[in-house]
Amino acid sequence: MNLTIDGVDVPFRQGQTILEAAREAEIYIPALCAHKDLPAFGACRLCIVKVDDMRGFPPSCTTPATDGMVVHTEDDEVMQLRRNVMKLILTEHPHSCIVCDLRDKCEKQRGGPVKAGRITGCSMCPNRPTCEIRQVCDYLGMADMDIPMEYKHLPLERYDPFFDRDYNLCILCGRCVRTCQQVRGVGAIAFTKRSHETKVGTIFGRTHLEGLCRFCGACIDACPTGALSAKGSKWHGKPDTVTGSLCAFCSVNCSMILEEKWGRVMAAVPDREKGVSRGYACVYGRFCIPAFVNGPRRLRYPLIRKGGKLAPVSWERAFRFIGDSLKRFSPEEIGFLISPYLTNESAYLIQRFAREVVGCHNIDILSPFGRVVMQFLADNGEVASVLATLQDVEEADWLMLVNNDIVFSHPAIPVSVHKARERGANIIIVDEEKNDLDVESDMHVRIEPGSIRTFFGGLLKVLMENMKGKESETIEGLDNLRNSLEGITYEWAAKLTGVPKERFQEIVEILLSSKKGVIMLGSRILEDPEPYQILAGIRNIMVHLSMERSFLPLLEEGNIKGVCNVGCLSGFKPGYKKERIRVMDFPRMMAGIRHGDVKALFVSEGTLSPESVRGVKFLVLSEIYPSDLDGMADVILPSAAFTEEEGHYISLENREWKLERAVDPPGMAMPEWKIAMGLAQSFGGEGFDYDSVDDIHQEISEAISSYTDGERPSFPSNRRLIPLKELWRINIGEYPPQVAHFRGMPVHELVKDLRIYLEANNRIPKEKPSERTGATPTLEGGGI
Amino acid sequence: MKSEGLRHAWKPKVDGIIRELGKTRNALLPCLEAVQQEAGCIPQEAITYLRETIEVPSVDIYGVITFYGMLTTEKQGKYVIRVCDSLPCYLNGSREIIEALEDELGMNGRDTTPDGMFTLERVACLGLCDKAPAMIINEEIHGDLNAEKVRGIIGMKKKEECGWKGYY
């Protein structure tokens, strides 16, 4: 179907509006309230057009395109009307700079905005380069204003973390309100009051921190004016370079655009064009990247311990020192603990160094939840096939969110959950306590603490009874499983979990209603000493339902999947080839340290407690910030952060994303793959001369089929059910809520605003006042 | 116990409306009206209750309440005087009416008199432009006002409350 816009034939799809068709054909129609991610609103009246055989001037954002329609967008009459509309909008928006005669000369002189208390013109507005009001005014040729402006004299709102608000600049297009409610599903802000008193505000005029705000920054990105602005990054002006990369703080790996100026990352904004999140990142990615990577305490020089003190040395010295020291130990006495934030290339080279040069096969990752899940999936031979993508989440008919805290651990995922809900998906929340996603759910199953295993046992039992005789023939081990569940009765499960029997039946009916469902599992299952049992329970349910791509374990660390793929998961070589010899995994290594079996350790992040490595004779630590482990380390190698290196990450949904280098690492810091190369060469290892990350990537791609995009093997060839152990409720361990980290460093340690936000939401313990005023801990010797 | 019962007197009515209109946004305004009628204002518990039952974000409910002049989140006086200050009334002297009311009631910038008897509100068009300037006291319409007439009406109200002995 086609319509004609200004004499050009433009194709359109059924249901598109004139504006959407025009935008796809790259025909400009001014509009301030329309936004591509939001349904039409029809508030600003700037997109009015003239349509042949149609009365009046319909707004193009709400008028559906029809076949053969003839539209004029630049008609004199239309333009004049738009100018009048724009004048009315400008009466409440400071516009002196827009209609100023000396504008061109002035802007040539003033490259950036002038920092001012109140914004009363474009020259003081940090939003000037991207202001949509200016764009529209330029298009309309607004030369003068004959209506006086009325400044609203509203107080500036600067009391919340992360962003400032100046509603004197607001034109009430409603994009922020609609984004908050309709895209993010949060609903922290709304229009309050009426007519000239209308203002975007929170409930009872509270602060955003007290309200529901999740500080995702989507409202700032949606705002066409400078009314909303990010605190940390509004005054730096135009960036020198922009680099499309990604955020490494969690495993969603949102695509971000990093803005560099004067050799530093100044701001990060979500990429609208590509990536999983399509312009909707979260508080960690949107606001925390610059402060995190630019921290003044970043490690800049390799340090080795001499006479009990750490002293800076050259890389060659450090490599030689490590080489000489490691040679004193037999390979079985060495352990490698790999950070799940390394790039594929770095992790690959380090495990190659360990396996081929040192001859040590004691390699494991530093991630409690990730290790359990990846081991389970790898043991059952289904690393890629069962995992759901966020698109599967969005298109699911039911979602089951188990013991998770995605609002804080993966704040970009609730966008997908909200999309699913808008489509009418059934959302079941299974949790021990109040969940922040309650708003999205019709069914909140509250279970007794520590009974999650019992819950899945009971659910499986009800499911199996519902499906009795209708099971698919390819399922193996049905009798074994049935026998293992013999001892469970409904009453017993109901008593332990606190979930009535009818509830189990209701849930099972939802599960049976559609195969398009996703079970999302959070890391809090680690409170159970045997999380394998929970995973086995979930797997049994999925095998019963013959579901594909329906399991989404909410892995936390940025590149945990990639690091496991390239052979850093204990017992698995690159590509999940089983190791032939006996190796130590993380818990065994820890026990080995206590018993004196493990004498040397290479750790690539400082998350371990100093006590746990007390018995180690030689400790190499590579990290980006000083950590508690520094006191024990014999060598500390400064590494690059994710904004400073190239490489590849594999996200939660098994997609490969390219990490780009936006700035140089501080001081002498190097990306991990270069460190591995240097180490290997100092050992005399061969085949370690790579020029760039691409060479390594090439080698990895040849060595393993990388289980990424496109090649998604279908559901397990192996459809064996796993018998469950007894499902008694057990004493639960402690597992603190997870917040974003990178290389062992919690983001909130470096970003004060994030600390305020997380403290207000009880995700981290409140900082004691004495700590706040106390001196920051420094390295021993203080050489750097 | 008693105060608890009084505070939630709106609940059965709201439940009835929701049963009738369904758990949709359509039920929001009738529910709010019912709460306002029963409780004299819309307390925070009511907002929370509505958010949980009809799934409109609470901030959105707050937005609706502040949009309509007839809905408030604060306790109002026995007599709620709503004076129109939209254009036709303004041109016919609503400013003068408001000044007279403020003076007569001794408002001093407050919304409600200290004894909780009168609440004065400036509202947008009441649909009484033919009788401009106009005001509504609770549900009673007063049109074609002037300062003198206003003082008379308020005097009557005060007398109704306290007999002929005088109000204050």
Keywords:
heterodimer, A: 784 residues, alpha/beta, Ubiquitin-like (UB roll), Rossmann fold, Dimethylsulfoxide Reductase, domain 2, 5-stranded parallel sheet, 25 helices, disordered C terminus, B: 168 residues, alpha+beta, Glutaredoxin, 2 domains, 4-stranded mixed sheet, 8 helices, 49% helix, 11% strand, elongated
Can you walk through the features of this model?
The complex is a heterodimer of chains A (784) and B (168). With 784 residues, chain A is α/β, with parallel strands linked by helices. Among the domains of chain A are: 2-140, Roll (Ubiquitin-like (UB roll)), CATH 3.10.20; 303-367 and 559-636 and 668-703, Rossmann fold (3-Layer(aba) Sandwich), CATH 3.40.50.740; 377-553, Dimethylsulfoxide Reductase, domain 2, CATH 3.40.228.10. Helix content of chain A is 30%, strand content 15%. In chain A, a hairpin with a 2-residue loop joins strand 12 and strand 13. In chain A, helix 15 packs antiparallel against helix 17 and helix 15 (452-466) packs across helix 18 (501-513). With 168 residues, chain B is of the alpha+beta class. Chain B folds into 2 domains: 2-67; 79-165, Glutaredoxin (3-Layer(aba) Sandwich). Chain B contains 8 helices and 4 strands, in the order αααααβααβββα. Chain B has a 4-stranded mixed beta sheet with strand order 2-1-3-4, covered by helices on one side. The radius of gyration of chain B is 18 Å and the shape is elongated. In chain B, 28% of the residues are buried. The model of chain B has no long low-confidence stretch (mean pLDDT 86). At the A-B interface, strand 6 of A face helix 5 of B.
